[in-house]
User: Fold these one by one.
Assistant:
Number 1:
Amino acid sequence: MTNQEIIDKLLNGEIKLYQVDKEVSAKEATDIRREFLEQEYGIDLSNISNYSLDMERASARNIENSIGVLQLPMGIAGPLKVNGEYCQREVYVPLATSEGALVASVNRGASTITASGGANARVISDIMTRAPAIKCENAVDAIKIKQWFVDNFDELKEIAESTTSHGKLVKIDPILIVGNYVYPRFVYSTGDSMGMNMVTIASEKILDKLASETTATHLALSGNVCVDKKPSSINIVEGRGKSVVADILIPKEIVAKKLKTTAEAIQEVNIAKNLIGSAASGTMAFNAHYANMVAAIFLATGQDAAHVVEGSLGITTAENRNGDLYFSVNLPDLPIATVGGGTSLEVAKEGLNILGVAGSGKAREFAEIVASTVMAGELSLLGALAAGHLARAHQELGRG
């Protein structure tokens, strides 16, 4: 069939969108689906059609029913000096966003941090989780299943790790019981991969063992105690992905020169906004806007954008120390990767290359950079609020 004949069949409902891939190459299928939409709705999708992505590879690993590529403006902020365990250098940070003033704000924070000697960043923990939902006959049986996981941990660890060369089952904790339901939280280390696919496959093997030895029923591979792509108290306490902290002591004169305010004013704004305001509203995130920086870096480096909801969790602290400003950010739940998933896409790999963290052995270094970038943006916004400059900055950049 010619391309137009396939489009005609789509228009007539004779074939499904996914069936186009069986007739032509992934690149042609992409063009056909897009042209189908243009003819169906009388619209122009020429911008979506412009891309340099290898659609054959992307269609095999990253997307279904492809029609083209999304384009977002990408800027850089920096240099940002990072004094980490894994990253000990200055970096320029790629940020993909459509929010005017964001890159400028992060850039100001980066300048402040670098002038003060750099961000002290450390990875506290490095785990990925999966927690299935298991149904038992009653609560007594549920308690027996909990003990089964405890008693058989060594064997279950061996089974899980037989499915991967990189993942390690660290623990099964907590194991929650709600009536006759059991939720074991499998905790893994996953190396430089974000690891969700890895831990899912490993956990399924454990559940096969459960089915062969007990009468418990495995209802769902994810029972929402993981907790994946949702805000969660358990992830704040236990951590998920990379748990990272970054802090800095900014001299009084740099606070005045770069942020146009004082340590005392920033401390007061942080208490009123990030701590009291967040508590009063019942939010789980005691910060100003972690999500802005996390989302912009995620989009620029091929991370799973849905994990921004987890990366937005965390607490900002600010303390006036005799005119100097002690400032910190804490990100307990940052699922990121430097290999696998969207990081293999050409544009994402270029973003990771800007940071110098593409490939294996770089995930913790990347985490330290993300935390330092979040601190730059957080510092800049709180400084702007303390100085009364926020609205002016948006107005001057033409963002009403």
Number 2:
Amino acid sequence: MIKNGYSCEIELGFGNPRKIIPKIVKAVNADLLVMGAHGHKALMDFILGSSVDAVRHQLDIPVLVVTKKSTKK
């Protein structure tokens, strides 16, 4: 898809996200990676692991991390 001079591609991969996402990004020669995150606190990231951290350390391109806005007050 191209709009306003920008092109966007969507790729679907299967398997361990920490391995498959960097592989796909490199294969398509991406300029930017946009990833969603759960917005866990530090302790939960430590327990569950953080795919975002693992992926961004394997890439040489900008990674935009998008989280869900909290509705808690």
Number 3:
Amino acid sequence: MTRSVSKGPFVDFKLLKKITGKKPEDAGVIRTWARRSQISPEMIGFTFGVHNGKSHMDVLVTEEMVGHRLGEFAPSKRFTRHGGKLQKATDDAKKQAEITAAKAARTTTENKI
């Protein structure tokens, strides 16, 4: 569900207070926990350290990011992979095939010399 147009975009007040009157070159990294804050045009050029639950990830704001949330650019969950025993077996078979191909290539080059 989107936010009401009459309310306007949500930008954390403390975050706006940190960037008012500063230039992007002089500000450095601005650390924040406000992942829900929308990116406004005033934030372009600033680098924010967005907290992902464990550490702060540096996010350089560009024009294409305006209207998105800061949290979208600092993922809080790590994707491991899909699959299970079957996926692991196919990965192991693929790795073994690469090893045998490399050994075969090595022996052919040694026989030529």
Number 4:
Amino acid sequence: MPLDLAAVRADTPAVATVAHFNNSGSSLPPRPVVDACIDYLRLEAEIGGYEAAADRADDLDRFYSAGAQLLNCAPEEIAFATSAGQAWWRSFEVIPLAAGDRVLVSSSEYQANAFALLQARDRGVSIETIPSGPTGEVDLDQLAEMLDSRVRLVAITHIGLGNGMIQPAEEIGALVGPTDALYMLDSCQAAGQFPLDVQSLQCDFLSFTGRKFMRGPRGTGLLYERASIIDQLNPPRHVDGRSATWTSAFEWQPHRGAARHEFGEYSYAAKVGLGIAIDYALDIGLDAIAERNAMLSGRLRTALAEVDGVTLHDLGKHKSAIVTFNVDGFDAPKVVSLLSEQRLHLSAPEATATQFDLGTRGIDAVVRAGVHYFQNEDEVDRLAQAVRAIARR
């Protein structure tokens, strides 16, 4: 079905006043998501938090079935998180890693993930970056050669926050699958951009945030953990009555399933909102979203490539809806500030957020436009014209 742009924009009232290209940072939640969160909070105010949870149990549980539909897995393999970083850490901490083990990572890792990797390195775990091919993605031949019996984990960021590149996640999964290594996929920037199928990806873990291209509330995230690997993992270190049972005075048992990674206290309204956001994307269709995103971001890249003084920094044979660039004579935050004055919202991620990528490329920061399907061609053209005007200064 073709995407109904008029209906989508009617659900996104902010488009009347701003052109929001910061969807790779935090997107604009559609009206049904906002309404669901407010309605739930209002119910808590009317009858109490515990009573609201009991009354709206089906809406809260919808998060799990919606997440399972999105990823093609079982609801029991889905856990709610308060961020992508929390979901990623909760995965990483249960993987048995010892001194001498090897962890292979991509060049696009995010700082929150890197901090966990660096702490593991301090314990004697070898953290190794998989060499990149000529267009920037993981070199699959090199990865195949690196996959020996000491490799315990392959951790890949699906789309880098500062390079627009889509990693060949499915091909990586096909290489890792026959080995004893686990495969962790950070799909923080991918979820909501295009379809994700954990069976095709063959990943053991997948995490994402709600606030980016999924258009959910801030303070939400999702963790997928393959049920068949649970017996290979350590129990979670951080648990409460939601994630474990205190079975006797000095014994406890973690719950089976991905919910063992959850705490009992979080924003229940936001959880309902993320379920609605996932349903909203599924109703539109991830294939339709991906097609429109490719058209809009391609239009922007083509326009910016024609501007003297603008350098595009995107990598990859296959590029996402994230477009990164710099303007000669201006640092990235200044460009973002000048564009903001014209109600054009972008961001300027720095090398400190992704040292394996921007740091090794010698780029201090980039201007980042995260294009999304609710935008129209006029907004894309207006952004390109505004960047051209800055470059002419």
